[in-house]
Structures are given as C-alpha cells and as structure tokens.
Amino acid sequence: MNKTMAVHxxxxxxxxxxxxxxxxxxxxxxxxxxxxxxxxxxNAALLIRANKKQVERDGVTIDDYNKK
Length: 68
Description:
Elements: H1 3-24, H2 30-58, H3 62-67
Helix pairs in contact: 1-2
C-alpha cells in the first residue's frame, strides 16, 4: 500500500469513527450524518480510482502480488 492509499484509509476510518460516535450519542442531526456518509463514499471512490491508476501504472494485480 502506497502513501496515497494509506491516507485515504486513515481518512475514511476517522470519518467512520466520527459518524459512529455522533450517531451513538445522538449528537448530530440527519444533515450531518448524510454529509459524513457522503464524504466517506466519495473518499472510498477516490481510493478505488487511485488504486486503479496504480494497477494500470505498475501492472500488478492482487494475484500477482500474492505470488511474490
């Protein structure tokens, strides 16, 4: 995992934890929950896009990586 993908994973984890904490304690309203869920989804899409570019550039798939 390169630095870009690690940053995306970390950001998504932070957003998920914030969303869980806010929903657990009923601190946020529906709007904040929808915004956080949208940010998580968008960041996940960007992560997939970055991973696709890396695979296209390096030509390494998961199966190729596991064979090493």
